[in-house]
Amino acid sequence: xxxxxxxxxxxxxxxxxxxxxxxxxxxxxxxxxxxxxxxxxxxxxxxxxxxxxxxxxxxxxxxxxxxxxxxxxxxxxxxxxxxxxxxxxxxxxxxxxxxxxxxxxxxxxxxxxxxxxxxxxxxxxxxxxxxxxxxxxxxxxxxxxxxxxxxxxxxxxxxxxxxxxxxxxxxxxxxxxxxxxxxxxxxxxxxxxxxxxxxxxxxxxxxxxxxxxxxxxxxxxxxxxxxxxxxxxxxxxxxxxxxxxxxxxxxxxxxxxxxxxxxxxxxxxxxxxxxxxxxxxxxxxxxxxxxxxxxxxxxxx
Amino acid sequence: xxxxxxxxxxxxxxxxxxxxxxxxxxxxxxxxxxxxxxxxxxxxxxxxxxxxxxxxxxxxxxxxxxxxxxxxxxxxxxxxxxxxxxxxxxxxxxxxxxxxxxxxxxxxxxxxxxxxxxxxxxxxxxxxxxxxxxxxxxxxxxxxxxxxxxxxxxxxxxxxxxxxxxxxxxxxxxxxxxxxxxxxxxxxxxxxxxxxxxxxxxxxxxxxxxxxxxxxxxxxxxxxxxxxxxxxxxxxxxxxxxxxxxxxxxxxxxxxxxxxxxxxxxxxxxxxxxxxxxxxxxxxxxxxxxxxxxxxxxxxxxxxxxxxxxxxxxxxxxxxxxxxxxxxxxxxxxxxxxxxxxxxxxxxxxxxxxxxxxxxxxxxxxxxxxxxxxxxxxxxxxxxx
Lengths: 301, 385
Prior knowledge:
The complex is a heterodimer. Chain A has helices at 2-32, 39-57, 66-92, 100-122, 148-170, 172-182, 184-189, 194-219, 229-242, 247-267, 273-287, and strands at residues 127-128, 138-141, 144-147, 222-223. The longest helix of chain A has 31 residues, at 2-32. In chain A, helix 1 (2-32) runs antiparallel to helix 8. Chain A is built from 11 helices and 4 strands; from the N terminus they run H-H-H-H-E-E-E-H-H-H-H-E-H-H-H. Chain A is mainly alpha-helical. In chain B, strand 4, helix 5 (140-143) and strand 5 (148-150) form a beta-alpha-beta unit. Chain A binds chain B through residues 2-3, 6-7, 10-11, 13-14, 119, 123-126, 128, 136, 138, 140, 145, 147, 149, 216, 219-222, 224, 227, 230, 261-267, 269-271, and chain B through 46-48, 50-51, 86-87, 181, 208-211, 213-216, 218-220, 222-223, 225-226, 239, 242-243, 246, 250-252, 267, 270-271.
């Protein structure tokens, strides 16, 4: 029983990070109806931004410290938000009126571009991510042990989720996002500039990916330019599982994938881990093709 | 395709030309091919096991430079052609084919990882080009054929050494094994360790596995913790080992963790940090060895690369030196004769110990056990076969 609870905590921490990445996939899909396959690589760039920023921030703020870690997190998020906007502006916007498949292939191209430019610029060997959080501690509760990183990951994810929910539901720009998602032409007629909204969506999604990158690197302090591929793929599965285009769905999907993987690795064998995660995806899509929380969409002709 | 934009295409091909030119290794002087002996090397110079490839390559390069300074081989200079397989599956076969068919090398040196040596071995065997793996310890590598050799010991020996060490020196009774199921090296080493440990009267508490490239091992380690072992054997490579050891300590698993030569890398301690203190691994060589041959090698290596050599560097050095020895004895670069000379090597004085080729073209030689103290590798003991 204790072991099971412990595994659930492990799975929750892993799933939280996947959830943050999945949110970016799902937001872009909600607005543009397209999968940004370069999203996993923005996650990687977030970790590397933190890696290169930490020594510079250490000259201003003490590191490791909570304030320093927060600065690394926020600046990396800003860097990746800018990169996300830039990628959309340069690679996707010129193709917006082209068939969806063209943009999709371009996204794969952007993803490969980022991965291999990363290998060229950062080097292919894994790098040690610096310690930015102070006092790693293991807390015991009966036979359960939480470590401080797991608590940080879960709480930062929760905070960012709430912040995102606030932006989307309670602010003017959030309302505009929902309007563009619902019907871009009608939104444009009402005076919403879709270009601004799309740029904002990419900025928001990329910032969340960067946050996930930093949290990942705090937990697993070995980073390399190809580190985004697998988490990116799994987060994509999580987004589809939860119902792509649906924000709570993406978060739920991330948690389900994280917990499933952990339980399969812990109780069966890590060999079957991905197979079972994908089998669950197939099963859910068979029963509910729009995903767990997705709404049925009526194809307009 | 739209052909109306020649400047773009021109620019693209120019860019491609520049990029590919940048990738070329420095070309030898024209005509040098005729009076140089070409030796091919394939190594993981970049990617997840980059420090292995880098060390091994530096050791090999040191040997070649030393031989050339002494006048080369058979009156000719030696030219080392090195190809990078980026630590990726599938690349070794490609680069080794290229070395053999387009560069015309007389022998191949490589690789550290058994999986990648196993890719290259059938190609060398088919083309009847002698291949020496410096540090692939999986038995299957040399079983490929009579042209494949190695200068390191093999996993049955390494696995047994660690099993005995765990049973007799550490007095462990109840052990957990965490294996990388994607690696031939890890699977082989785990198999022989388990057999040795159980034969020595120990008990296997739990077996878990992971796939190379994983970052999260909390699930496996939580299961291991529940089985309450008094030690964990992790026959993996340093990239994952660092994270495994770190996460084990974070889960409160305070038992000794130990493994094989896949741990030995300058990148292990930066990742694993203090969590590695007091853990053990077996390897081929210790720079602390006081013998003059080793100390001379360590000095030369430090002079050239400004760092201490590790086992991969020492084995890279030995692989090149043993090949040179065989070519010298043969008096030619004829592949069949070099092969025969390699197979007959007996007591070759390498820096990793005296190397004798057994009937299966494996080196029979001692192993060294190291521990991690204050972030540095420290010599514990030498175990002879």
